[in-house]
Amino acid sequence: MQDLLQQTLSGNPPTITSGTLPNLHWRWLDEGILELTPLVQAQQAVVISAGIHGNETAPVEILNAIVTRLLQGELPLTVRLLVLLGNPPALRAGERYLRCDLNRLFGGRWQQFENCPEAQRALCLEQALETFWQAGAHQETRWHLDLHTAIRDSYHTRFGVLPFSTQPWPEAFLHWLAAAGMEALVFHRAPGGTFSHYSSEHFQAASCTLELGKALPFGHNDLAQFQAAQQALTSLIAGVPLPEATVTPRRYRVTQQITRNSEHFQLHMNPQTLNFTAFPQGTLLAEDGKTRYFVQQAQEYVLFPNPNVAAGLRAGLMLVEDNAHNAALSGDAAAHR
């Protein structure tokens, strides 16, 4: 198989579904699902997914370029690697999704929409992860990087969203996110239906949803803007030193979720509102019938505002800064000026 993306977009499986190269074995497991195993013992298992939303194409192109280098023998493989192109029908259509938002269906939530193509795909991806993780050694380090681009512009162009976890985040993982160019890290405080949360909750993987820039169609991405993330992914896969982190990410935590529950929902924000826009305490953010959402803290920042989601889904997150961490960052910056 020469090109994972083109093979997936064709809608057909490759003629040859597995093979062995000088330093790896590869297997096409299902549509857009490729497993690559080094021929030497690996200490780490990595899942990299992209295209969970079909209109977020730059991460798919980045991931496909890395897979091509692996299959052509240009890049060594030092980890067990599972590559997932999340929603092939939506990728072919150039749409975020066809029927349901795939990234709200994990952890068994797909069972509420069993006749939806995305629900069937969520089950397929869950099974692929379970099989992959269980095939490894017990002491193997597990990472899952779910690559996205955002619908709207942002004050932090590249940022990571980390799922709720009861365990401390590994320093090596946080260091990798900084090297990948993340300007901010957002920490969830409640479970959710995202792919990264599924990996964390069910398989204790260090996982993150990486927002790498603005969503654009295939062929319209300036991949030079994604260079830090591409270099960090290459370093992780090939076992070579990480690029130097140019910034230390600012940290935020989710303080409340805005949910659209009916057709009466109104989001009181300009359609052009950027991610991480700040609102002062007392601001009316949204209302849905008798339910009203206000800024509760002295200052909160909005993330992913979207009034057009289906009923029952998230229409935005409100964040507060990790003041202790960010104050330390500011102090370090001042000390080096």
Automatic annotation (TrEMBL):
EC numbers: 3.5.1.96
Query: Residue ranges of the Succinylglutamate desuccinylase/Aspartoacylase catalytic domain?
Result: 43-237
Could you tell me which InterPro entries the record lists for this protein? AspA/AstE_fam (IPR050178), AstE_AspA_cat (IPR055438), Aste_AspA_hybrid_dom (IPR007036), SuccinylGlu_desuccinylase (IPR016681)
UniProt KW keywords: Arginine metabolism, Hydrolase, Metal-binding, Zinc
Task: Identify which cofactors the protein needs according to its UniProt entry.
Answer: Zn(2+)
GO molecular function per UniProt: hydrolase activity, acting on ester bonds; succinylglutamate desuccinylase activity; zinc ion binding
Q: Which GO terms describe its biological process?
A: L-arginine catabolic process to L-glutamate; L-arginine catabolic process to succinate
Where Zn(2+) binds, per the record, is at: 53, 56, 148
Q: Where is the active site?
A: 211
The source's superkingdom equals Bacteria
SUPFAM superfamilies reported in the protein's UniProt record: Zn-dependent exopeptidases
Q: How, per the record, is the cofactor bound?
A: Binds 1 zinc ion per subunit.
- Give the AstE/AspA barrel-sandwich hybrid domain ranges: 249-321
HAMAP family per record = Arg_catab_AstE (MF_00767)
**Which family does the similarity line name?**
Belongs to the AspA/AstE family. Succinylglutamate desuccinylase subfamily.
- What is the name of this protein? Succinylglutamate desuccinylase
Instruction: Cite the source lineage.
Output: Bacteria, Pseudomonadati, Pseudomonadota, Gammaproteobacteria, Enterobacterales
| Gene name per UniProt | astE
